[in-house]
Design a protein that fits this description.
Elements: H1 7-14, H2 18-27, E1 32-33, H3 34-40, H4 46-58, E2 62-67, E3 73-78, H5 80-83, H6 86-103
Antiparallel strand pairs: 1-3, 2-3
Protein name: HTH-type transcriptional regulator YybR
Domain HTH hxlR-type: 6-104
Keywords: DNA-binding, Transcription, Transcription regulation
Length: 105
């Protein structure tokens, strides 16, 4: 079914909301624990963060490693596929910088 979808539509379906893009952006700098993501993405709710992490994991853009112990430690990271979005996110950042300069915002 994926083969019949327009590539742009497919990409947007995988990173279709601001939280997914911001989660990926946060993980570009390396592995993060849930609490770190929650703090850096404030005001995201726990429910929205959990849902988006799950969806990103389901689409193989991020992975997670669970460390046994008390409390259980979970780290999230970008997969190679997720890391391949780096130039796209940097292009969005650069475009935003240009937009701010042009519009004095």
């Amino acid at each position: 079914m994926v083969n019949n979808i327009c590539p742009v539509k497919l990409t947007l379906s995988l990173i279709s909301n601001k939280w997914k893009v911001l989660i990926i952006h946060e993980l570009l700098s390396g592995k993060k624990r849930y609490g770190q993501l929650e703090r850096s993405l404030n005001p995201i709710t726990k429910k929205v963060l959990s849902e988006n992490l799950h969806e990103l994991e389901e689409s193989s853009l991020i992975g997670r490693k669970v460390y046994c112990g008390k409390p259980i430690k979970v780290e999230y990271y970008l997969t190679d596929l997720g890391l391949s979005l780096k130039p796209i996110l940097y292009a969005l950042r650069d475009w935003g910088d240009t937009y701010k300069k042009v519009n004095n915002k």
